[in-house]
Design brief:
Organism: Medioppia subpectinata
Mean pLDDT: 84
Strand content: 5-15%
GO cellular component, one term: organelle
Structural class: alpha/beta
Distance between the termini: 34 Å
Helix content: 25-40%
Number of strands: 5
Number of domains: 1
Low-confidence stretches: none
Membrane topology: Multi-pass membrane protein
Keywords: Coiled coil, Glycoprotein, Ion channel, Ion transport, Ligand-gated ion channel, Membrane, Receptor, Signal, Transmembrane, Transmembrane helix, Transport
Subcellular location: Membrane
């Protein structure tokens, strides 16, 4: 986390230098609603991603606006290479940036640049310590007779 934090701070400093030299740039961002990352209440955007973007904008001295992706999608790459959602808006220049809980994938990286992730999610299973020695992989689960 420390290396991500120092990287983010360096990026913020570069953005601040750039924005101060061009007198408060106004950027246009595209998003999709996925609570708690981005959601709308009383025609205003809120959420974790919005809070992070607000902090970056305040520190860096730029303004921005957000709009919803017209098709409401994050952005997929079809087998023919067509893209939709946030990816489409950024790739074709309708938006300056995308703001969402968007997974970085190799197919998406062919179309747009990504910042370093500000959050990583993982899935874990919790096992009581008395059962831990018997369960090492998912293949060990069918042998279990006691599930609590």
């Amino acid at each position: 986390m420390k290396s991500n934090t120092s990287y983010i701070i360096k990026v913020l400093i570069l953005i601040a230098i750039y924005c101060n030299s061009v007198n408060a740039v106004k950027l246009k961002g595209v998003t999709v609603e996925v609570t708690p990352y981005v959601y709308v209440m009383n025609n205003e955007f809120y959420g974790y991603c919005v809070d992070v973007m607000n902090a970056i904008a305040e520190i860096s001295g730029f303004n921005y606006s957000l709009y919803r992706a017209p098709d409401g999608k994050h952005g997929e790459v079809s087998p023919t290479g067509a893209i939709n959602g946030i990816m489409n808006e950024v790739y074709y220049g309708a938006a300056d940036f995308g703001l969402a809980s968007l997974t970085v994938s190799e197919s998406r990286k062919r179309y747009v640049d990504f910042s370093k992730p500000i959050m990583n999610l993982s899935v874990s299973a919790l096992i009581h310590t008395t059962n831990a020695e018997y369960i090492e992989t998912f293949r060990d689960l069918p042998r279990q007779t006691r599930i609590t």
